[in-house]
């Protein structure tokens, strides 16, 4: 979880569609969220596979079969989400530090080399894209834009 709030944290289930190559490697992902109001929750961790959502987005979820199931984004946070696959797994700590220095938060997946990156609105978009593209050009990593900030 990215926050240190004492508010009630809950898990929200996000169903995922796999492509013809079997990506993502899971059919669902759960994310921590803070209860805001009836059926409204603020996301409190970085998604690894769900797209179109970001940290601090307020989402609507409904209880179905004993689980909170994601329905829609109600209020975008202005954050963006990127995923980076680092080819040399020994470089993961260094890569995470690089994005931390830009003002981003990162989480490391149980899948080796996969990092989820939260980009707050305060981060320089030009600098972020420069770093992302440089790493890609140097064959250090590849990245995916999972959620670009919406106004």
TrEMBL record:
InterPro entries: DUF4265. Pfam families: DUF4265. It comes from the Bacteria. This is DUF4265 domain-containing protein. It comes from Cystobacter fuscus (strain ATCC 25194 / DSM 2262 / NBRC 100088 / M29).
